[in-house]
Amino acid sequence: MTFLEIDLKKLEFNYHSIRKRLKSQTKIIGVIKANAYGSASGAIAEKLISLGVEALAVSYASEGIELRQLGIKAPILVFYPQVDCFKDIIDHNLEPVLYSKRSWEKWVAESRKTKKSIPPIHIKYNTGLNRIGFQPDEVHWVLEQLKNSTFEVKSIYTHLGQTEYPKPDSVTSNQISLFEQIIEKHKAHSSRSVAYHLLNTSGLFNYPEHQMDWVRIGIGFYGYANRAEWNQSLKPIVTLKTHITQIHELKSGDTVGYNSGWKASKNTRIAVLPLGHADGFSRQYGQGKGWVLIDGQKAPVVGNVCMDMVMVEIGDIACIEGSEVMILGEGIRADALAEASGTISYELLTALGKRIPRVIKQ
Ligand SMILES: *Cc1c(COP(=O)(O)O)cnc(C)c1O
Question: Quick check: 12 and 51 in contact, CB under 8 A?
């Protein structure tokens, strides 16, 4: 049996650790996209709201709708709304981020069609990441639209591309100064109060002086901050455990898994675990790159990870069929396992599949 334990006490610890870094007036958007980074967005949303997070954010409208259906009443930003979902966004009182002329115009059209009240909007600028956002030279166009619009603009923001890099970092400084120029133009145009923001988790750790009105915290709440010294003030909130399904005694020369992915160079033992790439335990962790802990000892993944199962070499580690196996948690961090396999904690965590039962520890 495999299960993912989500420890809300640790989430609370991380929340306070992050809140301590903020000025008293700075607000937090709790980012719970991708099922709260692979954990359980409903439970995380409720806990973050009860702790005092001022708003939540998801990536797509469908994620916001799910939270509304769970009864979450807090403001929810939709970071990457697709224009065909604008009706859903209005119907569920979600707050869209508008990021291009096309998204603006579709939003205007959709809001004219409805009799419902129009939720507040957020405006995103692209200052160098070249993902989504209005170009800095489109600020005049945006200001022109705002003149004739009755939309409530709640916030204006940009997203930085490498906040974890050591300071000073010219790419980040350029992004920040571009954004500051955009802010000046908005402020000169209107005295209406709007919130500005640009920091994610490692942004807050690295550039607390630029926290502005809001920060957007994702990975930090889940216990990671992209640098060892920052990680120390956080606790990973998920523990992924399973139990050995079967043990095999192998002779030197025996092979393991599809395509004979691994060959024993001595007599040894392997354990078969009920978890595979369909659960997010990617093939990237195969071929000895990943490992698990059994009885506190490292057991490397051997051969290719299968869809539903994975094999690890246990040699003479004390264990029997049914013994507990630690995949993520005490003694084994998502960022370490990810790095050893050429990815990052974000990918590892968000890939954790639906099939794994979630257990919420209050
Ligand atoms: C995901 C996301 C965040 C959160 O980033 P973390 O590094 O997880 O804190 C913030 N802002 C935007 C726009 C995002 O897409």
Answer: yes
